[in-house]
Fold Glycosyltransferase.
Amino acid sequence: MKFFSKLVFYFVSMIHQLYYYVVNRLTSKSINLDPKSKYSISLTSYGERLNTVYLTIESLAKQVCAPVSITLWLSKEDISPEEIPRSLKRLKSRGLDIKFIDENIRSYKKLYYEYIEKKESVSFIMTADDDVFYPSWLGQLALEQASINSQSVVCFRSHLMRFTSTGDILPYTQWEKCQGTVEDRQDVFPTGVGSVLYPTGALVNLDSHRAAFLEHAPYADDVWFKACTLKNGYTSTNVGHNLEHFYCVLSKQRKGLEKVNIGEGKNDTQLKATMSYFGLTSNDFGYDD
């Protein structure tokens, strides 16, 4: 059954890939944007994924609840403006905002720069991964959940942090995957692949932490964003949906950073360093002794 499920997942992902390939080459319709919207969508990409990120963006371009903008943040260390693929040039002509920066702060680009630029003009920033197909209801469902509790970060994929009997945080590999809707808890740990909706108020002072997050959690933006939002008084909510996982772009470069962080235990070391920087304890993450 597990093999069959994986086969179906692969097949449906392939269908999505072919569909958005055709859409990118044939459509001239503008991306669905709304200048009065409460939220923006932001993502970044690098390496071989720069040739396939357009597939993800095409799926984001069809949001029922349109964002004010969709921005792709790129580092000039990865690619120059003259080198961007035709697929991205076509999207740019339809409304995609592509921004280049001189430095490279890796996966932090998608939220750090978006927050600096839009913290005064939008209420929420939604981040997206660059190798996932997102459903058209994503933004609408996230905003509906956010309206229930304005002090919560909303995500579609997360883990429940787990602790030892003495209050130590267990290794990341021993945390539980969230099942269904889990609301307003400190121990809900959002993972970016499923998309995360951040209230801009949850990110206060993110722009002043640049040197710190590059030192303490250079490869674990999810860890830093969780600590930052928790320090600002925000819980997290996992929204249940009818897809166990969103379908993915088929690529050789998938899960590279995830393998480094999880396989080598770097999520755990970066979490400890981040907690120390913010002065957070297990109790702040929901441990009740």
Notes: The chain is about 35% helix and 15% strand. Residues 73 and 167 are 39 Å apart (CA to CA). The chain has one domain: 2-285. The longest strand covers residues 39-44.
